Amino acid sequence: MVLGLVAVSAMTALASRASAQVAWRGDFETGDTSQFSYRLNETVEGRRYITVQSDTVVEGTRAARIELHDDAVWPNGLKRVELSHQPDAARTAEGAETYFAWSLYLPETLSSDPAQTIGYWESADSYRQMMAFDLSGTTLTFTTRQPSNVEQWRGEGVITPGEWHRIAMHVRWSKDAAIGRVSVWLDGDRVVDGAVARTLNDDNPHFVQIGLLRGAISFSDVPVIVIDDVVEGNSLADVRPADLPGEEPDAGVMERDAGVIDAGGVDAGSDAGRSDASSDADAGRMSREDEIVGGSCAVGRGRPTGTLVIAVLLTSLGMVVRRRRR
What domain count does the chain have? Predict the structure, then answer.
């Protein structure tokens, strides 16, 4: 009986995941980075700084390895290697809501001096950063930029090297700081609950960039991050905030977010006094490249397909029923 209930529960979770209305996916299963709108410093003077590989993955068979070198200089002086996704304009317009998530893995602890920005939303054309995730050693912070810098959350020691982590967001877009909202989940736990902020800079579309970004400084280390399972969706279920190795999909997170961001949150009038070089007007982004990463791809640590899992579970359930009949 217990095995039968487990089978039904697992099949329900798989069916829910299969029916999710995902708006866009960047999972690198194409073997390249073409799912993304832009790639910033994917190659520098013939050296590839974004590599699609199969050694370290969280789902499927491929993920992107990003490394930041001191010569990865953008025209405005910032040091960056990033992947950029720009949703359809209507999906970041006034009053629209966006769910977005990605998984990340650090082979080693990243530097705390200098620190790095690993993800942020920014306005197109006017290039104003609206909210960002900064990583210093193992400490992750989330900051909204408008109408002033507010550190909405700080997680000391939450990013462990050698383990996969997943960041998920729910944003209500508005130029009005009293209407804009943002919630954040880390590894399935909500860490920012409907924070109040101006989430739209202007009427331009807004885009998200993930990877490694530092200011206009010199450094000798080479930080590395692996990114996988990037998703934009229409609900929290679509982006699976708790979907990590060893975790049940969507376990323990759905009851607190039914698709509308809570009205409460941190007072946007308080200023954390932090600044970031990338909050200034950007110098633009790199156009798409057509270069494809070649080579064969061995099967990584992907999950079994839904059909195979369901077949196994149905077989197990049948065995339980037969035993009861004997």
Answer: 1
